[in-house]
Amino acid sequence: MKENVTLLDFWAAWCGPCKIMHPVIEELEHEFAGKVRVVKVNVDEPTSQKMVEQYQVGAMPTYIVEKDGNVVVQYVGTQSKRTLVEALNKALD
């Protein structure tokens, strides 16, 4: 099955809210395995700067749901698991 839905997780090691959200993202990665590709982007890594600029990420955490390469929704700050699950399910429809 082709994973045409992606969850981008922009985070940083120094970001308290990112640490709080880490277990939620891990759960989503397991629950949506084979359906959604989860990409964790450490904004402090030099190799991530192109993606940070491309998606105009200015605060962490930032979560972007893409379908077929197009942004479906973007959230900044901590989110409930339910919010992210609903966004992923909508993108999968």
Automatic annotation (TrEMBL):
The active site is at C15 (nucleophile), C18 (nucleophile). Residues 1-93 form the Thioredoxin domain. GO terms for cellular component: cytoplasm. The keyword Aminoacyl-tRNA synthetase does not apply. It comes from the Bacteria. Keywords: Disulfide bond, Electron transport, Redox-active center, Transport. Disulfide bonds join C15-C18. One of its GO terms (molecular function) is protein-disulfide reductase activity. InterPro entries: Thioredoxin (IPR005746), Thioredoxin-like_sf (IPR036249), Thioredoxin_CS (IPR017937), Thioredoxin_domain (IPR013766). The record marks D9 as: Deprotonates C-terminal active site Cys. CDD domains: TRX_family. The record marks G16, P17 as: Contributes to redox potential value. Belongs to the thioredoxin family. This is Thioredoxin. The lineage of its organism: Bacteria, Candidatus Berkelbacteria.
